[in-house]
Amino acid sequence: MKKLYFNLIFVGLASNVAFGQYAPKMSSVSKILTAEQKPGETAAPKDLGTIIWSDDFTTSTNWTVDNAGQTDPAQFGWDIGTTEQSWFFTTGINSTSDGNYAELKNGNYNEDSQLTNVTYNLTTAAPIDIQTLGNTDQVTLSFLQYGALFNDDQQVQISTDGVTFETIYTNNDRDIFVGNNNSAIYANPDLVAVNLATFIAGNASSVWIRFTWTSRFPAETGLNAWTTFGWFIDDVAITTNPDYDVEVTSTAWGTNGLTYYQIPLLQVAPIDFSANVLNNGIQTVNNVQLNVSVNGTAAGTSNASNIAPLATDSLALTTAYTPSGASTASYAVTQTITSTEIDDVPTNNAIANVSFSTTNFIYARDNNVVSGTTYGDGVTSFETGNLFEIFQNQTVKAINVRLTGGTGGTPVGTEIYARLYGIDPASGDFIYAGESAPFTVASSNLSTNLVLPLLSPVDLVAGEAYLAMVGSYDPALVVSNAGTTAPSTSFYLEGNDIIASTLFYQTNVPYVRLNFDPVIGIEENTGNAAITSVYPNPTTGATTVTYTLKNTSDVAVVITDVTGKLISEVQNNAVNAGEQTLNFDASSYSNGVYYVTISTEESIVTRKFVKK
């Protein structure tokens, strides 16, 4: 494929920063936990985690605030108190200790009062002697947080000399809160825990903790780059690590890196399941395995792994699971982690259940649970969609999409289209494969499954991948998202030209599906002629029109502008029935909107294109 960039599109600003690996985030931990003993089983007493240091911001002088010289902490930087002051949230963090908490803000987005080129730090005022407090460097840092990620760089850092700080945790891999994807707002409260053992090993007598905020785009001067919804911190603690604690740090499932929630019977293929696990404990955990069951029946297991303290291993099914493929069905998947030892913190190795289905004709990457939107900057047109891999030859007849309605959604009257791209085997670039007719959105088309038939069916080839997109020349388009995905599998095209425009990837999945239903026909046309495509569109010069004739006929092809003025007569002669290809050069045209009109004795058809 052409070079791709790590980008998330929101409010006109695109991210192009990829962050490195940090200490794994733990989903739960810290307070003293008691492992449930299995009936009839005896086990040695567990050395469970014990809190050796904590701070709930009751004493604000326990922390040093560096707000980049700003003197109004109610508007800029860190503040410790009991009153929420951000422009977005209406309540503070629901911490277990109540009382004071720390809050980060950087002006008011609605008032354009954000400051640029600032970094705000909140640091423990005195070093923490972990070695004396706990007689060990095997400890975990935990804290409660609340907020959301926009263009923030929200990091937690640690130092053993009070001068040099190392990042141990970041929120920057979370979903961006844009549109109406409220699921991107952190839980209130959200418990975060990071194993410190590798960062302070042999040097745990003086440790400083820092919460730091800046923009992920420090070179940007636009206010959007420095917008934050707010970040709240409370109940910071350091806890000794338990004996046995295997944590699931990430999971993945799908085929060749792509996750499908609806799979046509012809495209059924083996599905892989895997999990990365970290040993947060101080003892080796033996025979750690990933176990998968489907609809209550065992479907596979991974090889057993012995994982040393602080080591990470990837567990994957030894044999991928393949649905029967005989008929449409639903598949409920349960995944568990087992080991020889009883896990002291079982809550952080639970894996969320997933489900998918086999279908007759629909191929879907989205999970059908709307969780946000993809939209542009209000100025630039765009396309968005998903990559699909084909395992058996099959003819795609339409692309299904869901447009967001209501306030902030796609306006009624917006003209949209669906477009399909293949991949050039030589260059790896996406190449045009087909499209729908332009479609004008009515109110009944919003917030529903909208079928956009392709002008001509496209035969998809086994072993190839295709990109299905929905787009518009109107920047007001808003497309529903449903679920998240790995990078470089769902895309945002800034513009309408797959070759010339910038292609970004996004980690939210647009509701854009392939539809193989054979009853869907090509564009209905009671006349003689039908335009199949005008490509490229937009064009800078050389342009190809493909059209079909039911009957041999005299054909006139002309180009007009938006006022109806004749710009060029491209063809005027007798043409045989069947598919035709016509080339013309638009390089001399002024930039703007034009129309191709094909006239025969029986019909007149028109298609819009853009010269840029």
Could you characterize what this model shows?
The protein is mostly beta strands and 612 residues long. It has 4 domains: 23-30 and 50-240, Jelly Rolls (Sandwich); 246-359, Immunoglobulin-like (Sandwich); 362-515, Jelly Rolls (Sandwich); 529-611, Immunoglobulins (Immunoglobulin-like). Helix content is 1%, strand content 45%. The chain is built from 2 helices and 45 strands. Strands 1, 27, 29, 30, 31, 33, 35 and 36 form an 8-stranded mixed β-sheet that branches. Strands 4, 5, 7, 8, 10, 13 and 15 form a 7-stranded antiparallel β-sheet that branches. Strand 19 and strand 20 form a beta hairpin. It is globular and about 95 Å long. Mean pLDDT is 87; it is low at 1-47 and 522-526.
How would the blueprint of this fold be written?
Blueprint: E1 5-6, E2 9-10, E3 13-14, E4 25-26, E5 51-55, E6 63-66, E7 76-81, E8 101-106, E9 120-124, H1 130-134, E10 139-147, E11 152-159, E12 166-170, E13 190-195, H2 197-200, E14 208-215, E15 231-240, E16 246-254, E17 262-264, E18 272-279, E19 285-294, E20 297-301, E21 305-307, E22 312-316, E23 329-338, E24 354-359, E25 362-363, E26 372-375, E27 382-389, E28 394-401, E29 415-423, E30 430-435, E31 439-440, E32 450-460, E33 465-472, E34 478-484, E35 490-494, E36 502-505, E37 508-510, E38 512-515, E39 529-535, E40 542-549, E41 553-561, E42 566-575, E43 578-585, E44 592-599, E45 604-611
Parallel strand pairs: 1-36, 17-24
Antiparallel strand pairs: 2-3, 4-13, 5-15, 6-9, 7-8, 8-15, 9-14, 10-13, 10-15, 11-12, 11-14, 16-18, 18-22, 19-20, 19-21, 19-23, 23-24, 25-38, 26-34, 27-33, 27-35, 28-32, 28-38, 29-30, 29-31, 29-33, 34-37, 35-36, 39-40, 40-43, 41-42, 41-44, 44-45
